[in-house]
Amino acid sequence: MEEYSFKIHISESDLIDLKYRLTHVKWPTDVDNADWKYGVNRKYLESLVSYWANDYDWRLAEQRINSYPQYRIPVNGVPVHFIYQRGVGKNCKALILTHGWPWSFWDMHKIIGPLTNPKAFGGDEKDAFDVIVPSVPGYGFSTPTPAGINFWKTADLWHTLMTETLGYQKYAASGGDWGALITSQLGHKYADSLYGIHLMHTMDLDQFNKERPWDVFAGHKTAETTPAHIRQQSLERMKIFVSHYAVHMLDPQTLAYGLQDSPVGLLAWLLERWRSWAQTGNGNIETVFPKEHMITNTMLYWITGTVASSMRFYADGAKYPWQPAHGRTPIIEAPVGITFLGGENPAGVTTDQRVSAFKKGPKYQLYNVHYLNAHEKGGHFGYYENTEAVVHDLRATFRDLTF
Prior knowledge:
alpha/beta
């Protein structure tokens, strides 16, 4: 393993080039957009770029990331970067945590300590895990990747990483966004090798096997009896996921030329999703993500040149459709724990109603449900937004799951 030990160090010349780009921006006009109705507000973006250029310290962020043990190992020919933090305790279960877009592995760092050393955080050492946090292929330092990498192929890589590379006979898995799909595929195809899985989102494994895979809400219908205000809330919620999904599916490379040439353009594209998907309440993204965290995540896309490959992950989900490994039910056979967060409640459903609503819905039958819980706090980025809830649910999900 030690021969694959990895430390981040970005060259000074790359940082100088970045500083020049941040201080020589050709800004577009932005009339009548104080409420962000046309997209990212220029005044706020200017303030964030000024912070990035003048106050942000990448070397400090680099030092913080490098304080975790990291590795970069070829798995079936694909370079996989990951944090690997051993648990403090006896018989620690191995747990692989998978991020999504526009996340990075660094979005998981707040939960690593409580999961690996629960006693230091007021928990029980019996709940300690060995934690593995990889960068999804085509993201961050898991590059370069061959063409065609998608969520179900990543699940195959993760299984090889956990069982052959790291040598675990059995392991646990958790994920959100893309990580939820990757983890669901693990629970479908490799159930016999898993204690169980934990999900932050419930997503159909065959969601790209559609006539219009670029339409994330294809086939979604609202009942005619739905009250008008609930219908409108549902429509507003759909809007925040549509644009990036369609472009990433259909024209990822075209968009990538602009985003990889302009750090400000890249930041704007990521910022729009952070703000609209997180539970901000008043629209102030900094109530969820400090400036430093937003810029560090943007840096992890910028310095690795992975915006194109990260977006292609969508297109390759459709180009290489998922096929079931078996026809048994439930389709996801591994025991499943699910965390629901209030910022993503469906229109008309309160947090108190969330679990019962899920049990009555069509997706419930897809899973071998072991544990369900709902929390008021948090949006799409639950590992970062509500660390305490996620840690609680991970422990509760896997505590009594054994060989």
